[in-house]
Amino acid sequence: MLILRLVAMGVLVYAGLRLRKYLLRQNSPAPQASAPEAETAPVEDILVEDPICQRLVPKKQAITVRDTEGLHHFCSEDCRNIFLQQREKDT
Question: Which of 5, 12, 57, 66 fits a disulfide with 62 by CB distance 3.0 to 4.6 angstroms?
Fold first, then answer.
């Protein structure tokens, strides 16, 4: 009989807590919908693709080479060197 009383008391306490939470939610003002920071923050950098390994690199961190075809961005000095070697072979 004691176990039944404990279970009944636990159910009543749980129901009371849920009711309290529901009532507090009803009385509180609606929260303001805020946009995530990613949507409101300005874009600080864009990604550029390395022509050798096709890895995306932040433009500010990329190693660059300018030639007659334009500006090329690289993820590392190794990729830049491979690119320059390929250009030398082509000419």
Answer: 57
